[in-house]
Design brief:
about 260 residues; alpha/beta; Methyltransferase, Cobalt-precorrin-4 Transmethylase, Domain 2; 10 helices; Cobalt-precorrin-4 Transmethylase, domain 1; single chain; five-stranded mixed beta sheet
Amino acid sequence: MLTFVGLGLYDERSVTLAGRDAIEAADRVFAEFYTSRLVGTDLESLEATHGTDIEVRDRAGVERDPEPVLAAAETEAVAFLTAGDTMVSTTHTDLRLRAENRGIETRVIHGTTAQTAAGSLTGLQNYRFGKATTLPFEDAHGGDGVPDSVVSTIEANQARDLHTLVYLDIKVDDPHWDDSDDTYMTADHAAEQLADRFPEQLGVVVARAGSPDPTVVADTLTALSEREFGAPLHLLVVPADLHPIEEDALTELAGLPEKR
């Protein structure tokens, strides 16, 4: 049995009760933290909370060498942990399909996602979010400025009057749960990049979703580029035209300026 467990958004307490039970019942527990991170905790705290050893796999250890995980799941109860919701990333779907093709039973225990948290914290209506996109660091895509794919996603969503959730890049140089070499793109950095293409566009920053002190700020991308939003993780939403209730929500919850 291979059980995929989403750990939620922030720390060791963000996992659901069903996820906690699956981890405690597992014979072996694997995890990856290269697609996203629980910035409010560390590996030792996760292990202490769940009373188990967690074997962290890097990208190559999941995508190119999944054999240790699959072999264990053929004879034991195995839990595979990820931040957020476990099936948001394609790499996890690939691992699940590999298991199913080998006759290994799988199940999924969901965690809170950044997308649903962004809607909940901002007051933007969930059904008005279109295709999401990821803004990479400049040196990650070998070019200057914002990739055309990001611009086209925002423009296509706006043409359909839909909001765009922009995930911000994470560099993880060390494949294990040591964040000394990690770099998280900040929302002000992202806003600065996007303001070159959309200078007067409204943006909404969501910082530390799932934590006790999330930050939500709405203003033009140009104005957001001049502010700081504290510790990671950050998200950026590029809204479409606002419904009156959405505008009221951003005014009350995110300090949306009357004139912008």
